[in-house]
Amino acid sequence: MKKLGTDYDGESQHSEKDDKTTVRRRRPTRPRPTTTSTQTVVPHVTCTDRMEVNYPYLVYLEGLPDEPVCGGTLVSPWHVLTTAYCTTRMTEIMVTVTAYNRHHANASLVYIHPDFDPYTLTADISIVILRDPLNVTRYAQLPDIISSPIDDNFTTKALACVVVARRRLTPYHYIPVNVMYGLKACRESFDSEIQTTVSKTWREFICGMPNSRLGNDIGDPLICDGLQYGIISHTYRTKMQTTKIGNIDHQVRFLIVDYHRQWINNVIAVDYRFGTNDGRPHAFPGLAINLILQLLTIVFQLLLRYR
């Protein structure tokens, strides 16, 4: 089975390598300096917009030098929403706010969706727990965008949205994009095996109409009407590349945030339940309890021995 994914420069990749997936991981970190839809007109957004006002919750995640740099969003002072594709490839994670003088914090724990499949990239969602809070004026708002069952013959009309991204040493950039949802919303892949995967997993993804500026912005949010509808998950090459010499056409797929809303809410609720009074979540509350019990057992055994 071919693995559907996107490497760091935006090219599609296929690999047979196994990726171990866990629901919960400790990350040791260290501080470091329709097919028949009508396109809508997307208004041009200029760099004169005040980033700290419009998108104060934007962050990017960095690992080691040979690991990916991915986008993400703050959904609370302690929680970052991004893709599992990114966090499963990082051994260290530092999260930096793109506004507010680039404040940053290291990750103490990573939650990976238990249904994440590194081959099909379903459930490609992850929540990073921060060691210290990143306080901003506003956090990402998640909408309810799918309220009823949708059959296989349904495709929404194009919706005008924007992807906002920024990385270390690069300016903000806005990428206007029209998105659609449905079985036939994405362009067909030139690879039959990938197309089979796309057809089977369409319910979890919004499709961005092909845009040459998208590709290496994995983890960045899809913003529509001020709300985060999705996360850039991956791209794949479409059949269009065979008809246009020198112009490789990529289809972008956004993971639908609302599709995994219950999991997001559960993760945040669990962390706050086991947190301290100041709201900081413990990395492994159960581990601390177990250590205390073990120490008490040892002390009790020593007392019995020397009575």
From TrEMBL:
Keyword rRNA-binding carried by entry: no
InterPro entries reported in the protein's UniProt record: Peptidase_S1 (IPR050430), Peptidase_S1_PA (IPR009003), Peptidase_S1_PA_chymotrypsin (IPR043504), Trypsin_dom (IPR001254)
Keyword set, alphabetical order: Disulfide bond, Hydrolase, Membrane, Protease, Serine protease, Transmembrane, Transmembrane helix
Biased composition regions of type Basic and acidic residues, renumbered to the chain: 1-22
Residue ranges annotated for the Peptidase S1 domain, each copy included: 41-269
Family annotation (Gene3D superfamilies): Trypsin-like serine proteases (2.40.10.10)
Region (Disordered): 1-40
Transmembrane segments: 283-304
Record bears the keyword Cell membrane: no
Pfam families in the cross-refs: Trypsin
GO biological process per UniProt: proteolysis
Gene Ontology terms for molecular function: serine-type endopeptidase activity
Name this protein carries in UniProt: Chymase
Species this protein is from: Schizaphis graminum
Name of the gene: CMA1
